[in-house]
Amino acid sequence: MWNLPLLKQLFDVKDVALILILGIPTSHVSRPDSMGWFLTRTGRYSVKSGYGLEQQTRQESTPLVFGPDTRSLQAQVWKVKCTQKLQHFLWQSLTGCIAVGDRLKSRDIQIDPQCLRCGMTAETVNHTLFECPPALQVWALSPIPTVPNRFPTGSLFANMAHLFSELPNDERMGCYPWLLWYIWKARNDKVLGNVDWDPYDIITKATAEALAWANAKEKQETGITRVVHSVEAISSGVKWMGHGRKQIVGLDWAGNITPPNRIGGSDLGHAMYVKNNKVEMVFETDCSDVVKMVSTPEEWPAFAVLLDEVDRSRTRFTSFSIVHIPRTNNTKADKLARSARTLPTDVYYVNSVSPAWIPELF
Ligand SMILES: [Zn+2]
Fold first, then answer.
1. What distance in angstroms lies between residue 120's CA and the mean position of ligand 1's atoms?
2. By C-alpha distance, which of 269, 355, 351 is closest to 308?
3. Which CATH superfamily, name and number, covers 235-342?
4. What is the pLDDT of residues 216-227, one digit of tens each?
5. 114 alpha carbon – ligand 1 mean position (Å)
6. Can you give the pTM of this predicted structure?
7. What spacing in Å lies between the alpha carbon of 130 and ligand 1's midpoint?
8. 185 alpha carbon – ligand 1 mean position (Å)
9. Which of 41, 112, 255, 306 is the most buried (most CB within 10 A)?
10. Distance, CA 143 to ligand 1 centroid (Å)?
11. DSSP secondary structure string for all residues of 277-319
């Protein structure tokens, strides 16, 4: 049992509630406190996680810079629903990495930075993609609504931010990455090959490609079987079954609070406890992490308490081993476990034939 007054003294109220809700077991063995690194799953320090933390701290402590901070805008690029190629193009546009006159000039390339299509102003990324008359025409005719002084404007970042997060919730809006791409392609065809694109052709091409991409994506996603955990409360089921000389234990778990990597460890302890009157035991699990944890507990300090429990329980067997088995090869135990979880009450069943509620087992 947790010493509640001591918990309250040592931990934040929210953490105390979590400890109690999650039912984190207290250890049966007295082990000294140890250091752990909780930015990795195992609890052991890794250079990669240390570097990640350092980067994060640095970003958070960066002093304010003058001018807009476009990093969050850049990060949004990778969430835009389009192909990787287009995401990359959006990122290049935002970071000024496309070869427009103004950008080339800023790299000391001897070039007239004027826009070669309209000759009215310097050819910036924003001018090319949003404000040059041929681009403006495309936006005006496209399904994307244009709002005076709002979109498009003279600010590349404002225009991109508008496209990323201020468009109406309408699937036709999804074509904008393709529109930008074809506006850019049309600019290149004009500047490099003197080929003119009709704005309607740009829109037709962009919307058709956007639609084809969205359809292909939807097909791909519905083809995947999704595992949805809808169980509100945590419940675990452990069942074992005798069949001739062979004993089968099935264990399963459902819940939405405990991180999945805890499941194997804690339930393994449970299963060992249930079956500790057996003298020889082979545990087969489809969670390969559990096998690693039990064989090299020193690599998993985050699970030290649970692994101590396993260690303590294993001494009760004359022989103990744990091996990995793919779930497809362990269907009987899996069925037992699932059936255990769906039963409304605890049922203890020891027999040489299948229980009535899972007749298809043997
Ligand atoms: Zn222009």
1. 6
2. 269
3. Ribonuclease H-like superfamily/Ribonuclease H (3.30.420.10)
4. 887 766 543 333
5. 8
6. 0.46
7. 9
8. 14
9. 306
10. 22
11. T-SEEEEEES-HHHHHHHH-GGG-GGGHHHHHHHHHHHTTSSE
